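Hi there,

I know you've been waiting on this one. I reran it after we fixed the sequence typo, so this is the corrected version. Both the input and the resulting structure follow.
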Amino acid sequence: MSESAAHPSTPITGPTDSGDAFGDLAFDVFAKRCPSRTALENITGRWGVLVLAALKDGPYRFNALRRRVDGVSEKMLSQTLHALERDGLVIRDVQQQIPPRVEYRLTPLGADTAGKLLDLVGLLEGRMDEVLAARSAYDAARG
């Protein structure tokens, strides 16, 4: 059965016949070619959540952000920032001075997204006792 047959109300997930890149699209993250899926992957990937949450505190320079997001490599932080910038969540602000100063900050969309992510982080951190108990029970049952 095709995806559209399985989900007859699945929205369009590609360019319209008018040649407009996105036309009047409705987006569906469950459709494999929907661009919202890539954006979601960039946001919820291993480092995206942490970068957005850190930037919620205000702008950071690259190395300060790398220190804040403990464990991220320079390469992964750079890739994550590029992806989030491309998706319109982060702004790379180059200040013309000597030496040049580059800061990263959230766009309004990035700030809204980071707020939701921080709600999720707070929920998870507040219930870590339950998570740890579940892990222990799972591990004990599997020997």
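Quick highlight: The chain has a mean pLDDT of 87.

Best,
R. S.
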